[in-house]
Amino acid sequence: MSERWVAGCERILERIRSLSYAKDQDRLEVVRSMRFTLNAIYRSVVGWLGWVNNPDVMAEFSLEELKEMNETLIKFAESFIEYDAKVTSKGPRKVEERRDLGRTGKPEGFYV
């Protein structure tokens, strides 16, 4: 099972890298890339939860290995949640800006 998981991770990483290096992406392609990346993160988190919730698997790791995993996950979570809060805080302003544009009579434009 672990060999298949690692092979799947490698394929996902290749796809993420190919999406990140794509030139001249339009809005839809960028959103598609974001969806793929977030689904990859989701897949990984579900896998981690499967491990962490299985005492037989966790018993195989030393305390030092568990500490290293925990430290890495904490750094990732802090970075991701900080970014989440930063982007989310922009949401209400973006909605208000769009409403203001509608009030001025200018076309709102199409967005995805």
Order of helices and strands: HHHH
> What count of helical segments does DSSP give?
4
Identify low-pLDDT runs.
none
**Roughly what percent helix?**
over 70%
Average predicted confidence as pLDDT: 88
- Described by the principal axes of the CA atoms, the overall outline is extended
Largest sheet: none
**What's the domain count?**
2
Q: Could you tell me how far the N terminus lies from the C terminus, measured between alpha carbons in angstroms?
A: 38 Å
As a whole number of angstroms, the C-alpha radius of gyration is 20 Å
Q: Report the β-strand fraction as a percent range.
A: under 5%
Q: How would you sum up this structure, described in words?
A:
With 112 residues, the chain is mainly alpha-helical. The protein has two domains: 60 residues; 51 residues. It has four helices and no strands. The longest helix is centred in the last third of the chain and has 41 residues. It starts with a helix and ends in a 9-residue tail after the last helix. The mean pLDDT is 88.
